[in-house]
Recover the amino acids of this structure.
């Protein structure tokens, strides 16, 4: 198989700003960012709660969240498909094969990543941070926010990891989104489709974008962390 | 007798099988320096943390001026008057200035009030040269002085310090001792838990010795 021509064509598509390609890229980013923005606050809050508080069923919640982390995304996709399908409990909302369905799927995938990373970051926080804040007159909530700020690099890593995970997600996106051109076709599903059709150029172009995105996000994270992230 | 700032009576604390504090009675006067000595594990840190409201006692009564508190209940408002400094002070991963301003901001002080007070505290603690240095790059002595400046701006009535001169060189120890003397001169009561002979032998301080869970 000659890979040179499709690779050359892929760069040409990117350089001339192919409208179909840009639409797919835009949709992918939009869906991923929306999902992360929606799911990050409750996930981080739950992570803080699991890390700092003792309550009945806490261990069970943690086990379930960790189990979700290792669930195959197609299984998550199947569960969401069943809920959103016409005969499912949420069927009346007609969300299946819509961008909203993909956002729901992405949120389900990002949720355990955000929770587990947050638990790890908060548990790793120096207990003196909270105590120092309290002793300097901060209330409990203020001191907790201060502690969270102290582990901001861990939280940022959680968000970046979750974003990287959903932006490259295929199984769940195909199942609940249907890979409909112009509606729910995103970068990974487009790569899968175009490659199966033997159209490598668009697949390679999107692959380049995904890899650049992954690299770019991690460079930004490293810059934001600065020396703080190296401690 | 000088008016009492803080009185503690019958403070008890058990950790597992170990009765760390077995009924500690203590009376601290305003503007007075105190040294709390004792062997490792004698409960010095535990006692300071209880007085600061960072750790619960099993029993006992505290009285700050006219307000009594039956432990383990600890009035939140007391944190405005009592500040605790860890043996290895924790500095937030921000800046020296933000660290010193933290307590003022947490108490809702306006920026116009924070700036001059923080600036004065920087000069008081001799931190002008390191004010731009990231907190995690400061030496042990510098961190201790940032922590003391951070406490000073809050004008506490009682400052609790856990081994503030431990692991410091002679210069660092001397500077910390000067700051402590300065605080006492300003009317702040200071209670220092330590092993340091230099501190224990300071002429102007009163001494407590903690042994077998009680003060001697």
């Amino acid at each position: 198989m000659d890979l040179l021509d499709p690779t050359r064509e892929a760069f040409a598509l990117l350089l001339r700003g192919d409208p179909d390609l840009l639409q797919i890229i835009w949709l992918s980013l939009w869906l991923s960012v929306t999902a992360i923005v929606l799911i990050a606050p409750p996930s981080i809050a739950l992570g803080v709660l699991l890390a700092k508080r003792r309550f009945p069923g806490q261990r069970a919640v943690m086990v379930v969240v960790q189990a979700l982390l290792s669930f195959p995304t197609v299984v998550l996709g199947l569960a969401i498909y069943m809920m959103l399908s016409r005969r499912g409990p949420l069927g009346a909302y007609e969300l299946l094969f819509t961008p909203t369905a993909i956002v729901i799927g992405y949120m389900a995938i990002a949720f355990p990543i955000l929770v587990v990373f947050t638990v790890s970051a908060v548990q790793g926080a120096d207990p003196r941070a909270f105590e120092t804040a309290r002793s300097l007159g901060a209330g409990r909530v203020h001191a907790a926010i201060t502690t969270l700020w102290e582990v901001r690099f861990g939280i940022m890593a959680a968000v970046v990891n979750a974003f990287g995970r959903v932006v490259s997600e295929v199984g769940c996106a195909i199942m609940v989104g249907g890979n409909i051109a112009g509606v729910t076709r995103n970068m990974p599903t487009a790569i899968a489709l175009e490659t199966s059709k033997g159209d490598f150029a668009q697949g390679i172009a999107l692959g380049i974008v995904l890899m650049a995105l992954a690299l770019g996000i991690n460079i930004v994270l490293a810059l934001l962390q600065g020396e703080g992230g190296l401690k | 007798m000088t008016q009492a700032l803080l009185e503690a009576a019958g403070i008890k604390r058990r950790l597992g099988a170990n009765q760390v504090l077995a009924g500690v009675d203590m009376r601290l006067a305003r503007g007075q320096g105190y040294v709390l000595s004792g062997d490792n594990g004698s409960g010095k840190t535990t006692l300071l943390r209880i007085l600061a409201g960072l750790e619960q006692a099993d029993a006992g009564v505290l009285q700050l001026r006219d307000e009594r508190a039956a432990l383990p209940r600890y009035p939140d408002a007391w944190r405005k008057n009592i500040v605790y400094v860890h043996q290895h002070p924790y500095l937030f991963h921000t800046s020296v200035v933000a660290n010193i301003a933290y307590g003022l901001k947490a108490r809702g002080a306006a920026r116009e009030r924070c700036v001059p007070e923080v600036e004065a505290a920087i000069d008081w603690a001799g931190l002008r040269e390191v004010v731009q240095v990231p907190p995690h790059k400061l030496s042990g002595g510098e961190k201790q002085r940032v922590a003391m400046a951070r406490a000073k701006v809050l004008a506490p009535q009682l400052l609790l310090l856990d081994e503030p001169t431990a692991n410091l060189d002679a210069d660092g120890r001397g500077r910390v001792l000067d700051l402590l003397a300065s605080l006492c001169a300003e009317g702040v009561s200071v209670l220092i838990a330590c092993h340091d002979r230099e501190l224990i032998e300071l002429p102007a301080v009163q001494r407590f010795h903690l042994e077998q869970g009680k003060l001697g």
Summary: Residues 12-224 of chain A form a domain with the MetI-like fold fold (CATH 1.10.3720.10). The two ends of chain A are 47 Å apart (CA to CA). Chain A touches chain B at residues 126, 128-129, 131-139, 142, 146, 149-150, 227-228, 231 (CB under 8 Å). DSSP finds eleven helices and no strands in chain A.
